[in-house]
Specification:
G-protein coupled receptors family 1 profile domain-containing protein, GPCR_Rhodpsn_7TM, G protein-coupled receptor activity, signal, elongated, transmembrane, 146 residues
Length: 146
């Protein structure tokens, strides 16, 4: 498990490393800003839109769908195995709690995927699309506010 976490962090650092090459701090209008070459910015934003957002979203969508499918099959199986009579109410309550917990996991997975897409998608897609517009004669500045 530690090796997997280390690999994930290493991949994340590699994806973030173009920022160290492309961006440099300067002063612009009494603000800290990062001047970006328009061509490099388009490449960088395209990289972010595809590698940092689209590929992880597709992977998450596939894996979460597989997990949700497996959980829904296990819920059906648990409902079939649940005792029909009320003589063993302790077993029935445990099974009901188990089914409820599985449904909560399914809702949480859908919520996390929707939150990821809602938070990152519009920003990255808007940034990439605006980089393709023809106003390259203006300087671009990413203003950093603290």
């Amino acid at each position: 498990m530690k090796k997997i976490a280390a690999i994930i962090w290493l991949i994340s650092i590699c994806f973030a490393s173009p920022s160290l090459y492309l961006l440099r701090m300067t002063e612009h209008d009494h603000s800290c800003g990062i001047p970006i070459d328009p061509k490099m910015n388009t490449i960088f934003m395209g990289f972010n839109a595809v590698v940092v957002f689209s590929i992880p979203a597709i992977i998450l969508l596939f894996l979460y769908a597989k997990i949700i499918y497996t959980l829904s099959k296990s819920i059906v199986t648990a409902q079939r195995m649940r005792p029909a009579s009320s003589t063993n109410s302790g077993m029935k309550t445990t099974t009901t709690d188990d089914i409820r917990g599985r449904k909560q996991v399914m809702v949480a997975l859908v919520f996390m995927l929707a939150l990821f897409m809602f938070c990152w998608g519009p920003h990255l897609i808007y940034s990439f699309v605006t980089d393709l517009t023809p106003y390259r004669d203006q300087d671009r500045w990413l203003i950093v506010h603290y």
